[in-house]
Amino acid sequence: MSTDESSEGLLLVLADPGPDITLEEYNDWYDNEHAPLRLTVEGFQTALRYKANDTAQPGWLALYDLTDPDVITSDAYKAINLNQSQRENDIIAKSKMLNRRVYSHISTQTSPRLSPSALPAKYVLIVSVDAKPEDEADLNKWYAVEHMDAISKVPGWLRGRRYKLVSTKELAGQADKDTPPATKYLSVHEWDRPDYRSTKEFKEMYDTPWSVQVSNYLTRREPRTFELYKDFGKPR
């Protein structure tokens, strides 16, 4: 496997328009105004939207690669929020969830068969986890020594990235106040086939003694699966 650490930050947004906005209106705003505008900010490298293909909520995910997590506190990024349109203000106020999470990069590993044309991948698995402070060193060691290597052997795997939470903010006006906070650690795995979770290799990688030990001390583990909806291209 090879590594690529050119993007030191990630902006992840979990979204749910809720009952007060039609999906057509919401997608028109997100696809033609909200996401493209972010690619005008220096430090944004990619902009991708995904639709959930599991049964969990929320149903929408956006991922933005950043040169650095500090891009979110830059004057340029603050300016687009201060000058956002009335439509953007109205939609955010009516939304059920627009949960913004900023992460710093820990590591990236890629499949030897990964080519530039394979990205963005059609399928993505995100795994959010928390552990007690005294177990975090072992969790990080497990990822580095065993787990990333094991998941790389699952058919269809293209790339895996790990992140640590920097900041989080709920922007939606109709957000549920009881929504659990973001976890400290995030993994993003990209795939070229949808059935990877049913493979023998995927199921067996969680049966090792070390994996069982890790699962026993995790305080939260939230896997979600999504399918690519729109690639907004490169910065403008």
What does this structure look like?
With 236 residues, the chain is an alpha+beta fold. Helices cover 27% and strands 33% of the residues. The protein has helices at residues 23-38, 75-82, 86-94, 136-151, 200-204, 209-217, and strands spanning 9-16, 48-52, 60-66, 97-110, 123-131, 157-170, 185-191, 218-231. An 8-stranded antiparallel barrel has the order 1-3-2-8-5-7-6-4. Strand 2 (48-52) and strand 3 (60-66) form a beta hairpin. The longest helix is centred in the first third of the chain and has 16 residues, at 23-38. 29% of the residues are buried.
Explain the layout of strands and helices.
Blueprint: E1 9-16, H1 23-38, E2 48-52, E3 60-66, H2 75-82, H3 86-94, E4 97-110, E5 123-131, H4 136-151, E6 157-170, E7 185-191, H5 200-204, H6 209-217, E8 218-231
Antiparallel strand pairs: 1-3, 1-4, 2-3, 2-8, 4-6, 5-7, 5-8, 6-7
Unreliable residue stretches? 1-5
Q: Please report which band the strand proportion falls in: under 5%, 5-15%, 15-25%, 25-35%, 35-45% or over 45%.
A: 25-35%
Distance between the termini: 31 Å
**Major sheet, described briefly?**
8 strands, antiparallel, barrel
Overall pLDDT confidence:
95
Rounded to the nearest angstrom, the radius of gyration is: 18 Å
Main structural class: alpha+beta
Q: Order of strands across the widest beta sheet?
A: 1-3-2-8-5-7-6-4
How do the helices and strands follow one another from N- to C-terminus? EHEEHHEEHEEHHE
The level of helicity is: 25-40%
Number of helices: 6
Count all strands and give the number: 8
| Shape field | globular
